[in-house]
Each structure stands twice: as C-alpha cells, then as structure tokens.
Amino acid sequence: MRVYFLDRIRIVLTILVIAHHSAITYGASGGWFLRLVDDKSTSSLVLTLLAAVNQAFFMGFFFLISGYLTPSSHDRKGWLDFTRDRLIRLGLPTLFFGFVIGPLTVAITRTRSWDFASEWFGIMAQGRFVIGPMWFAYALLVFSLAYVAWRKLVPVKPAPRKPIPGHRTWILAALGVGAAALIIRQFVPVGEEVLDLQLGYFASHVFLFALGCIAERYGWLTEVKRKHAMPWVIVAAVAIPLLPIALVVGEQIGQTNFATGFSFPAVFYAFWEPVVAWGIIAGMLWIFHLRFNEQDKRWGGLARQTYGAFIVHPPVIVTIAILLESIPAPALVKFLLLTALGTLASFALAWAIRKIPFVKLAV
Q1: Which residues, other chains included, contact 242 with Cβ-Cβ below 8 Å and sequence gap of 6+?
Q2: Biggest alpha carbon distance in the chain?
Q3: pTM, entire model
Q4: Over the stretch 73-122, which tens digit does the pLDDT of each residue have?
Q5: Do 334 and 286 lie in a common domain?
Q6: Residue 222's domain spans which residues?
Q7: Considering its fold, how many domains does the chain have in total?
Q8: Does residue 237 sit in the same domain as residue 308?
Q9: Sign of CA dihedral 17, 22, 27, 32
Q10: Statement to judge: residues 3 and 146 lie in one domain
C-alpha cells in the first residue's frame, strides 16, 4: 500500500535541496557550482545557519525514506529485478548527469552567457565527470546493492510488530552517530570527498538508511506520534540557535575548525547534527502522517516529478541566478526569488522531460 504522506515529504525535501543550493549561491557556507556572494555579512550568516540545519537532516531523511521503501521493493521484484531496476533508476541518471548535465552546469557558470555551447562540448570532449548532487543517487545505489548482498547472507524471517523504541534508544543512537561522525572526520574532514562522496556526513546517512530498512518491518514511519516527536522537536528547536553561539565561543577560545579534529566546535557540530535531525525528521513524520496521508492527484503529480527536478535543478538555478544578477536587491531577497523560481522551473522541466519516451523508466 502506498504511503502518501511520504510522497509529500519527498516534495518538501526536493524543494529544500533547491533552497540549500540557492542559499550557497548567495553566501551560505558550502560547495556549489556558483557563488555570487562570498562575505561574512548578516545575510550570509543567516543563510549559513539555514544550510547547516538543512545539512543536518534533509539528505539523511531521503536515505531514511529510501531505506523504508527498499525491503518491500526487493521482495516484490526479487533480487535480480530489484538490482536491475536500481541500476536503471540510479545508475543511468548519475552517468547522464555526470557526463552531460554536470558539464552543462559548469559551462553556464564559466561563461555566464547564452554562448556556453562550445565550453560545454569542450568539457564533455575531455570526458570530465561532474557528479554534483547526484552523489545521492550514487550512494543510494551502493546502499541498495549492499542491501541485496545482506539479504543473500541473512534471510529475513517474518516478525511481529514491535513498538517504536523509546527515547533512551534515540539518545544512544544520536550519541553513536555523533561519535561515528567525529571519528570519520579525523580522516575525511567536512567538505573533503573520497570517491565523490563527502564521507564526513555519512555516519547519519548509513544509519538512517539502515534504520529505514528495519523500520519497514514494523511500520515505524507510520507510527510516529506526538509522544515520540514532540520532545525531540523541542530539543531541536533549542539546539539550532546554539550552533552560532558555539562557533562564537570557539572563536573566543581560538578554536574555529569544525571540520576535523577534537576542538570544541568540531565536537559540538558532530553531536549537534543528529539531535537536530531526529527532531526535524520525527516532527515531519508525525505532522505529515497526521495531516497529509491521503491520495491527491495534484500532490501525486508533483511527487512523480521530484526525482527529475532533483536531477535538473543545478543548471536551472545557476541560469536563473545569473539572470537575477542585474537586479538590485538584497541577497536574502534574491535567495527567496531563486528558490521560488528554481523550484517552479525545475519541476516544470522535469514534467516535460518525463514526456520523452523511455525517460520515465529512469526518472
């Protein structure tokens, strides 16, 4: 049975991806194709906090939902068809983005004009692979294949329903993920990549995908209630404004590196992320299941475009941002404009592309 509220959440998360990259464009900390603002203004600090909150939960939430949908898809299709489907749905779009759309985005960024074709063709002729945000599909393909191997080694037996674990387990999970992230970041600091993946964030990604696979057996994502979510929503609301305070404290004591090491900012950031993630994820699961778990053609139509919008949004928002350069408006206003226009254009383009024969099979 389709879980409609998860479709609504995927739409919101896709919009947040577009907002995240729009924020980086106008001053937030992070890596992206185009940065038009690079200062320490108040707007940049606000957008950096927004990006940090997003980073704490939104891609992990995608992995949680993907993990939740994986066991039933595997069982329904069988391991061979499931593997073939994952290679088509995740592998082919990643390759197409890497060799075509990624170079297109780089070409538009470099030329900042409509005369980008020669630059684009030149990058493609070099065989350059630009993974961009498709690292998510790449990582999800690896996770999916790992799940297939796991099921081969450890057959899953039918199990009775179990209640959602208590808050003590949630606390231990947050501590475990934070500790794992801190350890990983000693070898791969935040912002650095290994095989096109920022492994510094993967402690939560791996945990949430695995949790999703386990949660599917017991229907946990549909069982999150106020008693589960509200305490963590409150904790997250308290924790979010503490991040900039922690960074200021770090500066006062001469510790500013949050990407690696065991400085105060690095330790705080590692454990701050899962606390914020648990609160936002639990709150969204509770509210969306309570309010939006019904079939609706309009929402269903948007949900079908989320993957396509995710794939095409980089060249879309880069182009729109360049067009907005001449408008004399504050960075925060341009961020809102870029997010809104980028969302509309990305979903519309995804809808148009899915009309092409055979494309629907992949996106």
Answers
A1: 268, 272
A2: 62
A3: 0.95
A4: 999 999 999 999 999 999 999 999 999 999 999 999 999 988 999 999 99
A5: no
A6: 160-292
A7: 2
A8: no
A9: positive
A10: yes
